[in-house]
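User: For a benchmark we're assembling, each entry needs the component sequences followed by a predicted structure for the full assembly. Here are entry 17's components. Please fill in the structure.
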Amino acid sequence: MSEIPASLPPHLHAIVAEFQAADRSEKLELLLEYADRLPPLPDWLRDNRADMEQVHECMTPVRAAAEVHGGRMVFHIDVAEESPTVRGYAALLREGLDGATPEAVLAIPGDFFYAMGLQQVLSPQRLNGISYLLAYLKRLATRALAHRGA
Amino acid sequence: MAGYAHPEVLVDTAWVADHLHDPKVRLVESNEDILLYDQGHIPGAVKIDWVADLNDPVVRDYLDRARFEQLMIARGISNDTTVVFYGDKHNWWATYALWVFKLFGHADARIMNGGRAKWIAEGRQLTREVPTYSPGVYHAPERDDTTIRAFRDQVLVHIRQPGTALVDVRSPQEYSGERTHMPEYPQEGTLRGGHIPTAVSIPWASAVHDDSTFKSADELRALYAGKNVTPDKDVISYCRIGERSSHTWFVLSYLLGYPKVRNYDGSWTEWGNGVGLPIEK
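Assistant: Structure for entry 17:
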């Protein structure tokens, strides 16, 4: 099993460790628990879904937006009800990155999730979603940095 | 369902609702998303996952006879059980699972027309309760790879023969070679874009309505005959890994009654990467 990258924000580090410690069936149960607790979009976004950008690389309709408060990021992610695997990815990234700085988000290695051991239970195709979602959240973090610079 | 060649292979959602407690019937949910069944399924349904349950873990192939028997016994399925498949994405993975069951000659395998989407759209009940059944009694023959399955060398001969048809059921962009994956799906590592020479393009989902139910026999006949895919021909369908094309195999074999239809499960991930294999754009 891959080691957990030291550069992960503390919340995400804890989530990765939680998955790493789980056995095969527990990993799927855990992912479903995350999917279940992906919060609905806040009102201001729910009424403006069209303004959120779609993560085009994802096989399921996924939309994401970011807010920055005092240099800390909060992500809002909308995933179709019928795609619990991607909802699970969205929820664990959202919780794991809550309150992280844009720099910390950008420092996450693109392959961090291998330490969770999800490849033991998910085919490569089914793992793609998490890479694409992270790449998209990084784009939002880059934009937040540019905005701060401007 | 009038006009279909084998209407008995389709059941509607109301039939399923009436047979939830029928011990002769086993509902099987097969989805693209591995967690969807766990999030909620039709009461009494069991899950069969295309990767975890139907693929061999070592060889790129399907499970063998012994593992198929074990799977049937574990899911409480016997040789005489009526197995009704349903799932997400217009039943695409449900028809794939049905095709694998037919490799082992399971007699009574059916599809719930409209799949998961229609069941939910009608406001019918879902549960997270995973049922347990007493073990099935199952004896399977060796897997028959000759009747409904095609291999790459057979396809290479097929495309040079008269009286054959080859159906590419992928998206128009995959067929043209503009891209090697479905629109909005990730790129999955095929070296070349395009299609197998002589193949005609009939995207798999052209066979269903927006509510995931199958189109009428007349509409389907016009769809395939319009591209010269007719019942007198030896037909092979393919896609990327053989899942979408099992949907078309089901339509041609059971709804239209074509006598000779095979699914080439190696499909574009094999052909597009295969050394020595010709392509067209």
